[in-house]
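Subject: Protein record for review, amino acid sequence with backbone structure tokens
How to read it: Take the token row as a discrete description of the fold.
Enclosed: The protein record, placed directly beneath this head.
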Amino acid sequence: MSPHIDREPTAYEIWIFKWIAMPIMIVCILIGLFAWFKNHSRCESICEEKGFAGYRYKPSGKYGSSEKTCTCFTEEDAKIKDRVPEGTRVF
């Protein structure tokens, strides 16, 4: 059972939340988005340089994965719609 607080937060608690906790959370979210975008773009450029028709970037933590992966697909692999093809893993 979760505890229930029957009082309003003090001005100090609001200030801490507003000027310390929220900015830290926003910075963490922005860093995560930047890292995803950078790795996604890197995956796309590597696959295009090697002449593949498609790619798939999977960040770490997604689907129980402990590491980020980039998989490039040939033309035949890219045409498969019902399942994820094997492809060629780049990183």
In short: Residues 15 and 21 are 9 Å apart (CA to CA). The radius of gyration is 21 Å. The chain has two helices and three strands. The beta strands are 54-58, 69-73, 88-89.
